[in-house]
From TrEMBL:
This is Metalloendopeptidase. Zn(2+) binds at H164, H168, H174. InterPro entries: MetalloPept_cat_dom_sf (IPR024079), Peptidase_M12A (IPR001506), Peptidase_Metallo (IPR006026). Keywords: Cytoplasmic vesicle, Disulfide bond, Glycoprotein, Hydrolase, Metal-binding, Metalloprotease, Protease, Signal, Zinc, Zymogen. Its cofactor is Zn(2+). Residues 1-15 form the signal peptide. GO terms for cellular component: zymogen granule.
């Protein structure tokens, strides 16, 4: 428990409040088309006042959230009688129609090859509240209550970033922290900015009998959080393998969703 609290404190940034921020800010100008998804997410979240773990996981002060952090893949959205996993959501009216379309299309791409279905919220207690708050971040797994997904305008509204955050809400964490990662990547600890080293900590994950996926939408880029933009993650044994470059779900991401939620007809 002490180590977990220490990890949360190490991930805390204090420069801003958690409210909506002006979309015309010069500092937060949209660069998402020219950089890796993880680079954009980490840049957009720099300065958030939320408790942030692993770069983009907001930690609310609830027992359920702590359970989802300590036990990977343990907080799953329930299945409906029809066999689908229905995830209710609300889209903030502060998004324009183009932004709403981008978010909905990212959801439809997840739906296409899985049994996950995103449905507009009616009166459900548990739902995703998608808002243009500061940064690109969310809480992990199913909490049984309102769950905020922060997708700031002009920076976070891209297909890949939206899917990255939606996979967090389904219970998935970053690929470079999985339990067998040392067989596939080398963490160059001397190159990692000291404050961010907890974001590279290896976790006791359930990998659902899937291979390590360099192409996962959940993989950090090779220079994420490096000193002077130095390489923090190196693929092994072939250091030239691209990592953190995907802009949509990989085939293995899709398999994992279906295995985790027992979407048998899609396997």
């Amino acid at each position: 428990m002490v180590s977990l609290l220490l990890l949360l404190l190490l991930g805390l940034c204090n420069a801003h409040d958690g409210s909506d921020h002006g979309a015309d800010s010069e500092i937060l100008k949209d660069q998402s088309d020219t950089e890796d998804i993880s680079t954009t997410i980490l840049r957009m979240n720099n300065g958030s006042s939320e408790l942030i773990l692993e770069g983009d996981l907001m930690i609310p002060r609830t027992r359920n959230a702590m359970k989802c952090i300590s036990k990977r893949y343990n907080c799953l959205w329930p299945k409906s009688a029809n066999g689908n996993v229905e995830v209710p959501y609300i889209l903030s009216s502060k998004y324009d129609q183009s932004e709403k379309n981008t978010i909905v299309n990212a959801m439809k791409d997840i739906e296409y090859n899985t049994c996950v279905r995103y449905v507009p919220r009616a009166r459900q207690t548990a739902y995703l509240d998608i808002e243009p708050r500061y940064g690109c971040a969310t809480t992990p797994g199913y909490l049984g209550d309102k769950q905020t997904v922060s997708l700031q305008r002009f920076g976070c509204i891209s297909h890949g970033i939206i899917q990255h955050e939606l996979l967090h809400t389904l219970g998935f964490y970053h690929e470079h922290t999985r339990s067998d990662r040392n067989q596939y990547v080398k963490i160059n600890w001397d190159n990692v900015i000291e404050f961010f080293k907890p974001q590279f900590r290896q976790m006791d994950t359930k990998n659902l009998n899937t291979s390590y996926d360099y192409t996962s939408i959940m993989h950090y880029a090779r220079r994420s959080l490096g000193k002077f933009n130095s390489e923090t993650i190196t693929p092994i044994p072939d250091a030239s393998v691209p990592i953190g470059k995907s802009r949509r779900l990989s085939d293995i991401d899709i398999v994992r969703i279906n295995r985790l939620y027992k979407c048998w007809r899609y396997l």
